[in-house]
TrEMBL record:
Belongs to the TMEM179 family. Its main location: membrane. The lineage of its organism: Eukaryota, Metazoa, Ecdysozoa, Arthropoda, Hexapoda. This is Transmembrane protein 179. It is found in: Membrane. It is a multi-pass membrane protein.
Length: 225
């Protein structure tokens, strides 16, 4: 029972952290798209115009940014639901069933996978953009705040902080969801072990009953008329 309580508390704590980290994905990526007038800098490239020093971007698909925001929303909603569900179970002194534990494992592994994809997209996409920025500026960070694209009227003041926060959010979320997957797997294995113990105890009880029945039967002798 103590192990169950510790595991349940660990899961709740993990989901609380996952909830907070999901906001580190949703908020900065949403701000970025708003400041860039709906454009997404992830995997965007371009050239610097020599005449006026303006950047002529070749914008990548918005799906890169939309996907990361979508992942953040899924993580947020899942964590919120799990916090409520597990908190109610702890309040009632109960624990999840074998089926719900199995669903938790599948869900955690799935969310870990899509979070990994989002983390890779943000990291590689941001690197692609920064490679273009460093053709003119000493570092990508120094490009922030400069009016590099008047044609699209984008606000570059916060892109470096926002994408940095999103990177932190996705990679940190990935580590948390890996941990939650481990917790869910441990709980599932525990249920499996308990089920095996019940089956073994049932078989042993049946064997003892059969042994007792056969023993009592052999002690009976037929009456001689």
């Amino acid at each position: 029972m103590a192990f169950t309580n510790v595991l349940l508390l660990s899961q709740i704590a993990g989901y609380v952290v996952a909830l907070i980290l999901s906001l580190c994905i949703i908020v900065p990526m949403s701000l970025h798209q708003d400041e860039f007038r709906g454009h997404c800098l992830l995997f965007s490239t371009g050239n610097w115009r020599e005449s006026d020093g303006q950047f002529v971007p070749d914008w990548a698909s918005q799906m890169y940014c939309n996907y990361t925001i979508f992942v953040g929303l899924i993580l947020f909603l899942t964590a919120a639901v799990q916090i409520y569900r597990l908190s109610m179970l702890m309040y009632k002194g109960e624990d999840s069933s074998f089926l719900s534990a199995f669903v938790d494992v599948i869900t955690s592994v799935f969310l870990t996978s899509i979070t990994l994809i989002a983390a890779v997209i943000i990291t590689l996409g941001f690197m692609t953009w920064c490679q273009c920025m460093t053709k003119r500026f000493p570092s990508c960070e120094l490009a922030a705040g400069n009016d590099i694209d008047k044609a699209d009227n984008i606000d570059t003041s916060g892109f470096h902080i926002e994408l940095g926060a999103a990177q932190f959010g996705t990679w940190s979320s990935l580590s948390i969801w890996v941990g939650l997957s481990v917790f869910a797997t441990l709980k599932l294995l525990r249920y499996h072990q308990l089920e095996n113990m019940k089956v073994s105890m049932y078989r042993e009880r049946q064997r003892l009953i059969e042994a007792a029945s056969s023993g009592s039967g052999s002690n009976k002798h037929p009456e001689i008329g």
